[in-house]
Design a protein that fits this description.
The complex is a heterodimer of chains A (592) and B (240).
Chain A: E1 2-4, E2 7-9, H1 14-78, H2 82-96, H3 102-119, E3 123-127, E4 133-137, H4 155-158, E5 161-167, E6 170-181, E7 184-194, H5 197-207, E8 210-215, E9 218-222, H6 226-234, E10 240-245, E11 248-258, E12 261-268, H7 269-323, H8 337-378, H9 385-399, H10 404-416, H11 426-429, H12 437-444, H13 446-454, H14 464-469, H15 490-505, H16 516-526, H17 533-560, H18 580-585
Antiparallel strand pairs in A: 1-2, 3-4, 3-7, 5-6, 6-7, 8-9, 8-12, 10-11, 11-12
Helix pairs in contact in A: 1-7, 2-3, 9-10, 9-15, 9-17, 10-15, 15-16
Chain B: H1 7-27, E1 41-50, E2 83-86, E3 98-100, E4 102-104, E5 107-109, E6 112-116, E7 119-124, E8 131-135, E9 142-147, E10 152-157, E11 161-166, E12 174-180, E13 185-186, E14 193-199, E15 202-210, E16 214-222, E17 227-235
Parallel strand pairs in B: 1-17, 3-7, 6-12
Antiparallel strand pairs in B: 1-14, 2-13, 2-15, 4-5, 7-10, 8-9, 11-12, 15-16
The chains are: A alpha+beta (592), B mainly beta (240).
């Protein structure tokens, strides 16, 4: 626990830390990768789309150039129509002779109409050598009225060519072929299509991209919406390449350039790439989100893997400390060799501590036992008293079916119950005869004294009650506290009865020991007031067994003639269990 | 046109035609009935075709002009395509003539032929391929159909005028037949010289005609027993 400016701040949990760090790092990496990838993808997509559009436009431009060449050839072939040429040539000769040319004109008209039916072109027209229209056919024929002159570059000079021709309100893209007879140009043949939106749309459908027709940077026809037309007019369009305006990238290519007119294919890269870019971003985002989720799960798992064995160890140790149970080994993590080593070390430490503790406890017990024995030895009359009381109390406890733990407590507590008498002067303690009230007060101090002596020994905590309260009486007239009935712990009550029994049956300097029956009579007389009734009952029940065992032991002891080994004097195992009903059946004279 | 014409072939035929024409002119003097020698005069002169006489071939046609002649051949002059005539009305029908326009190397040879009314022109096919002869001209509208090498068809021209002749199979081919109702016409020779004999004395408008130049007219006075001289200069441009 760290303290900053007086505020207690708990260290963060390991699991949170690990989770935080690993996830933060992975998340940063994923986000960075996402950003870079999406940027790159968009860039690449845009370039790919631009290339694609460019390729498409180039293909269409080639296709369109080929188509125009073919149209030119077609027009050239058409212009070889012998009747047409003969009629035009003859028309000239007749005009020289000032003969009427209407019949020849009709012949020309008829020929044109036949061709138009075959070709379905918007307009076919033939002019004489001066450029005046002789005849025209097709839906656009009204734009090519007979007699009007068509201004073009002289096809005679250039051979077959393409030209932009203004006819009335409309502009036509015309293939112009000279009509040649015997090397002489006798007229011109026009195969024309109007440069209008319909034409642009037709091209656009073939090109799969918008088409705009410009004359001197003015859009005269286009398949594109007005907005794109405006854009086109604001841009200097290259022959081919990309231009950018208002953040939108366009791929443009000039398909045709005839006179001042140019036909451009134009496509917005931004529009074309938009959908694909959005889709790619979506895919990347889904992958990124998935990766983040996986990272979160992985981080959580990692954190758990690191933290949970430690938590397990901590819990095990805490449980051990709480239960004061140092016998069980710590659980092994099974996931971390380091943690297992830690647990091993801890176990070794725990074992060493437990051994040391047991050793010191044994030492204490030895010392205390010696102390008690020494105390008993101060007065020949009380020699062996503590041991006998311990045996009696154990027997009573067994009779009352107390637990092994309680029996242990009772035995040791009984052994030490009179330890406080160390502080009582010999003069008082060994005084034969009646004690003065003052002397009796001094005697009465011994339970408190004993408790004070033993208090520093923590492992004797449970036994203190016996030492301190073995002179309390159920009627509340005992000392030192004057507790009543059940306020007095059972072990203390048991030891009280056992103490009294032994005191009565043991000789004193001023009187001889009385027989057990008398002692029992005495106990029964004061049962319920001085002595706990149940305990007296239990003693009554178990007494015969005790006496039998004592007699047997006396024989052994006398034979060995050695001091009693107090650790070995466990009578419990020698006293067979008897049912309460049997005990009650034992007759005794309460009046004795 | 004279562009691809072979001199050897092209010169001989006009020569024949010219001789025939000369005979006709001698027999049929202008201005009044038969005249005796000494009572008539003649016009002699020369024609020059002024540059550029070299014609540029327009090559973009579906059928570029094919030339199968020997290398180094001289291109004949435009003089073969010139007709010099006086516009007079004869007393009666002039004697008919016979002329030939051959089809050679996808060309009509000669390109220009002058005949009197009632004359017949033969159109023999000397080419290896089929040819056709047709005309849309007002004075003689006809179509002789297609015919192979060796075959020949002919047509008699009864009305004066300019008849343009074409081939339906080869749209670049054309020929001109000028039909006169008198014999006073001539084609200049290789030096450009021409003679219009047998003319009654008087003033004449002499016309030199070329299809791309049109008419060039000079006024000349013919005196009996004498030859009036005359010079024509025809400015030929590339196109009409």
């Amino acid at each position: 626990m760290t303290t900053i400016f007086g505020l207690a701040r708990r260290s963060p949990r390991l699991v949170v830390r690990v989770l935080g760090f690993s996830f933060a790092v992975i998340a940063c990496v994923i986000v960075a990768v996402f950003v870079v990838l999406s940027w790159q993808t968009r860039d690449r997509l845009t370039r790919a789309v631009a290339q694609n559009l460019e390729l498409g436009q180039r293909r269409f431009a080639d296709h369109e150039a080929r188509r125009q060449r073919e149209q030119l050839l077609q027009a050239v072939a058409l212009a070889e129509n012998p009747t047409l040429k003969a009629a035009v040539d003859t028309y000239h000769s007749e005009r020289e002779l000032e003969l009427p040319g209407d019949q020849l004109q009709r012949t020309i008209q008829l020929e044109l109409e036949k061709l138009q039916k075959l070709l379905a072109v918007p307009a076919l027209s033939v002019t004489d050598t001066l450029g005046a229209i002789l005849a025209s056919a097709g839906p656009g024929a009204s734009d090519w009225p007979v007699g009007e002159r068509v201004q073009t570059r002289a096809a005679a000079q250039t051979g077959p060519s393409e030209a932009v021709v203004r006819r009335g309100p409309r502009l036509y893209l015309a293939t112009v072929v000279p009509l040649v007879i015997s090397g002489d140009v006798v007229g011109e043949f026009f195969l024309a299509a109007p440069l209008n939106d319909a034409y642009a749309r037709e091209l656009s459908e073939e090109a799969r991209t918008d088409v705009a027709i410009l004359i001197e940077n003015r859009v005269i026809a286009s398949s594109a919406p007005q907005a794109v037309r405006d854009v086109i007019e604001r841009l200097p369009l290259p022959e081919s390449g990309t231009v950018e305006l208002d953040g939108i990238e366009y791929v443009v290519r000039r398909l045709t350039a005839v006179d001042a007119a140019s036909v451009y294919a134009i496509a917005s890269v931004t529009d074309a790439a938009g959908t694909a870019t959005a889709e790619a971003a979506m895919v990347l985002a889904v992958i990124g989100a998935g990766a983040l989720l996986l990272a979160a799960i992985g981080s959580w798992w990692l954190a758990r893997t690191l933290a949970s064995p430690i938590d397990g160890l901590t819990t095990a140790v805490a449980e051990m400390a709480r239960a004061r149970d140092f016998e069980r080994p710590l659980p092994r993590s099974g996931t971390s060799r380091e943690l297992d080593t830690l647990a091993d070390t801890f176990d070794a430490l725990r074992r060493a501590v437990a051994e040391a503790e047991a050793e010191s406890e044994a030492t204490y017990l030895g010392v205390i036992g010696a102390l008690a024995a020494a105390l008993d030895a101060r007065d020949p009359y009380t020699a062996g008293h503590s041991e006998r009381v311990a045996d009696l109390a154990m027997a009573i406890g067994k009779e009352m079916r107390l637990s092994d733990e309680d029996l242990d407590t009772i035995r040791l507590g009984a052994l030490l119950h009179d330890i406080g008498k160390i502080g009582v002067p010999d003069a008082v303690l060994r005084k034969p005869g009646t004690l003065t009230p003052d002397e009796f007060e001094q005697i009465k101090l011994h339970p408190t004294l004993g408790a004070r002596i033993l208090k520093p020994l923590h492992f004797l905590e449970a036994h203190l009650a016996i030492v301190e309260l073995h002179h309390e009486r159920p009627d509340g007239r005992g000392y030192p506290r004057g507790l009543r009935g059940n306020e007095i712990p059972l072990p203390a009550r048991i030891v009280h009865v056992a103490d009294a029994f032994d005191a009565i049956t043991t000789a004193r300097a001023y009187r001889p020991g009385r027989p057990a029956t008398e002692a029992m009579a005495e106990l029964w007389r004061h049962a319920g007031t001085d002595f706990d009734l149940e305990v007296v009952h239990a003693l009554t029940a178990t007494l015969p067994t005790i006496l039998t065992a004592r007699a047997a032991r006396a024989a052994v002891v006398s034979a060995a003639a050695g001091p009693a080994d107090m650790v070995a004097t466990r009578m419990g195992s020698l006293v067979p269990f008897r049912a309460r009903s049997e005990r009650e059946a034992v007759p005794y004279d309460a009046a004795v | 046109m004279a562009f691809c014409r072979h001199p050897g072939r092209s010169v001989s035929n006009p020569g024949v035609v010219a001789l025939v024409a000369l005979g006709a002119a001698l027999a049929w003097p202008a201005a009044g009935g038969p005249v005796r020698a000494g009572e008539v005069g003649s016009i002699v002169g020369d024609v020059r075709v002024v540059t550029p006489s070299s014609r540029r071939l327009v090559t973009a046609g579906a059928y570029p002009g094919r030339h199968v002649g020997l290398p180094g051949e001289q291109v004949s002059t435009e003089l073969d395509n010139v007709i010099v005539y006086v516009d007079v009305k004869g007393p009666g029908a002039p004697p008919p003539m016979r002329a030939t326009i051959r089809q050679v190397d996808e060309e009509f040879v000669p390109h220009v032929v002058s005949v009197t009314t009632g004359s017949t022109v033969d159109f023999p096919n000397d080419d290896l391929i089929f040819h056709n002869v047709f005309s849309l001209s007002r004075s003689a509208t006809f179509d002789l159909g297609r015919y192979p090498r060796g075959a020949s068809k002919s047509r008699t021209f009864n009305r004066p005028g300019i008849v343009k002749v074409f081939c339906h199979l080869h749209s670049h081919m054309s020929a001109i037949v000028r039909v006169f109702d008198h014999p006073h016409f001539a084609t200049p020779d290789d030096e450009g010289r021409f003679t219009l004999p047998n003319l009654a004395p008087g003033r004449y408008d002499v016309v030199a005609w070329h299809e791309r130049v049109g008419e060039v007219t000079h006024n000349v006075t013919v005196t009996a027993g004498q030859a009036s001289t005359l010079s024509f200069s025809l400015p030929l441009t590339d196109s009409r």
